[in-house]
Specification:
Blueprint: H1 2-16
């Protein structure tokens, strides 16, 4: 569950840092 949260946050931050 924590891994999924971290993965989603990482993907979101990467997309938002575009």
């Amino acid at each position: 569950m924590l891994i999924a949260f971290g993965f989603v946050e990482l993907a979101g931050i990467r997309s938002r840092r575009s």
